[in-house]
Task: inverse folding
C-alpha cells in the first residue's frame, strides 16, 4: 500500500466506513474487520490513492482522433466548429464516456473545463468527483457585461445541479479569447462567490506573440472581427498578474511559455500550475518548465488535456513524461499525480493520499512478478504500469471500474 504521505506498507489494508471515507489503514493484521463488512483481497497489487487528473475536457471525448491539424490556431478553429455542430445530448454522452474512461485509468477526481456543463451532470449522475470550471469566452470588451451575466446564470444553475462531490469554478479561457475587461469582471465575480478560478495561460508561442507584440494568427483573427488589440504586455503570465487574476485560488493551465519572472509571479501569488506534457508536445508548444516551478515550491499538478489532443486519459503516462522532463524520482512523479493534483485543486484535505478521514478514493495497480519489495522499486513498478494493469478503481469506497475477468479475490 502506497499512502503517499508515509512509507509503503507491505500487506496493507484499508477499512472504509459507511460514509465512503477511510476509517483506518495499516498492515492487514492491524486493521479491524467488522463482521458485516465485505473483504476484498488483491494479491500482487499496489493500493494507492485515486489519481487526480487536474486538467481535462471530458465533454470533448467524442472528438478523439477527429482533428489532426498540426497548426495550433487552425486546430482550435476546427475544434470550435465541431463544438458548434454538437448537441447538448451528445455532449452529455461524451462526458459520461469520459468519466468512465478516467476511472479505467485510475483517476478518481478531475479538474475539468468546458462550455456545455455536461460534465457536471455526468459526474453527478455517475457518482464521480471533481472541480468543473465553466469557461467564460468573449474577446470583445464591449460584450464583457453581457457575457458576465450569462456566466453568472449558468454557474448558478450548475451549482444547483452539482452532486455533493462536484465543485463548480469559473475559467476565463485564454488571453486570445477573453478581453481584459471580461477577465476583471469574471475574477471579481468568482472571488465574491468563493468560486475556484482556472485559465489556459502561456500555452503556445502564438499566444505569447499575441500578448507581447499584437501579431500572429490570434491577432489577425481579432482584426478581422474589428476587435481592437490591447497594449502589449511582456508575457501572458504577467498580463494576468497586471489584471489581478493570479492568486491562491487560481489554477494556471499549461504555463509552458513561462520565464523566470513568470515563475516568480506565480509563486508570489501562490497560484497552482497544472502541466500537460503530452498535449504540449503534440501541439509543438515545448516542454513546461517543471524544475523552475518545483524550485519555487509551486503547487504542481498533472493533466491529460482533452483526448482531442492526446487520445487517452492516461495520467501515469503524463507522470512518466514529467519525470523525464524534470529528472524526478518515481515517488515525486507519483506525488504529482495524487496529492499534488489534490493540492492544485484545493482539495488536499479530502483526497490525494491514504489517511483516516479522507475519501476512500482508491486504485489497485497490478505488480508483475517478481513483486518489488523495496519502496523505490515499488514506486518504479507503479509508475510503469500499463493501462491494462489498472485492476480496480473505487470512488468513496464504491467500485466504479474493475477489470474483467478477474478482480478481487474473496476472503
Result:
Amino acid at each position: 500500500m502506497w499512502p503517499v504521505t508515509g512509507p509503503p506498507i507491505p500487506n496493507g489494508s484499508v477499512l472504509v466506513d459507511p460514509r465512503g471515507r477511510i476509517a483506518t489503514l495499516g498492515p492487514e493484521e492491524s486493521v479491524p474487520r467488522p463482521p458485516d463488512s465485505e473483504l476484498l483481497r488483491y494479491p500482487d497489487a499496489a493500493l494507492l490513492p485515486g489519481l487526480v487528473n487536474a486538467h481535462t475536457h471530458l465533454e470533448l471525448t467524442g472528438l478523439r482522433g477527429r482533428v489532426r491539424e498540426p497548426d495550433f490556431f487552425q486546430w482550435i478553429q476546427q475544434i470550435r466548429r465541431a463544438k458548434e455542430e454538437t448537441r447538448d445530448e451528445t455532449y452529455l454522452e461524451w462526458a459520461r464516456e469520459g468519466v468512465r474512461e478516467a476511472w479505467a485509468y485510475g483517476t478518481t477526481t478531475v479538474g475539468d473545463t468546458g462550455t456545455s456543463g455536461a460534465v457536471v451532470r455526468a459526474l453527478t449522475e455517475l457518482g464521480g468527483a471533481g472541480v468543473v470550471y465553466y469557461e467564460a469566452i468573449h474577446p470583445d470588451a464591449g460584450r464583457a457585461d453581457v457575457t458576465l451575466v450569462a456566466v453568472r446564470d449558468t454557474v448558478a444553475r450548475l451549482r444547483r445541479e452539482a452532486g455533493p462531490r462536484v465543485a463548480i469554478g469559473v475559467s476565463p479561457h485564454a488571453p486570445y479569447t477573453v478581453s481584459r475587461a471580461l477577465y476583471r469582471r469574471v475574477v471579481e465575480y468568482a472571488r465574491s462567490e468563493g468560486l475556484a478560478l482556472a485559465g489556459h495561460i502561456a500555452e503556445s508561442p502564438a499566444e505569447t506573440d499575441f500578448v507581447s507584440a499584437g501579431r500572429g494568427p490570434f491577432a489577425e483573427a481579432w482584426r478581422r472581427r474589428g476587435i481592437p488589440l490591447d497594449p502589449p504586455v511582456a508575457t501572458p503570465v504577467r498580463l494576468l498578474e497586471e489584471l489581478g487574476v493570479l492568486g491562491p485560488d487560481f489554477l494556471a493551465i499549461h504555463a509552458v511559455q513561462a520565464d523566470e519572472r513568470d515563475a516568480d509571479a506565480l509563486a508570489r501569488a501562490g497560484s497552482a500550475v497544472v502541466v500537460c506534457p503530452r498535449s504540449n508536445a503534440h501541439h509543438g508548444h515545448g516542454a513546461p518548465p517543471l524544475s523552475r516551478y518545483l524550485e519555487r515550491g509551486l503547487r504542481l499538478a498533472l493533466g491529460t488535456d482533452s483526448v482531442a489532443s492526446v487520445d487517452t486519459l492516461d495520467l501515469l503516462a503524463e507522470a512518466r513524461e514529467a519525470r523525464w522532463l524534470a529528472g524526478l524520482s518515481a515517488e515525486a512523479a507519483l506525488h504529482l499525480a495524487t496529492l499534488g493534483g489534490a493540492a492544485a485543486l484545493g482539495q488536499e484535505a479530502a483526497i490525494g493520499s491514504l489517511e483516516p478521514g479522507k475519501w476512500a478514493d482508491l486504485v489497485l495497480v497490478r505488480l508483475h512478478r517478481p513483486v518489488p519489495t523495496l519502496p523505490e522499486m515499488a514506486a518504479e513498478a507503479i509508475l510503469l504500469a500499463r493501462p491494462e494493469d489498472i485492476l480496480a478503481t473505487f470512488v468513496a469506497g464504491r467500485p466504479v471500474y474493475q477489470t474483467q475477468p478477474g478482480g478481487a479475490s474473496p476472503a
Remarks:
- The first helix runs from residue 72 to 84.
- The mean pLDDT is 95.
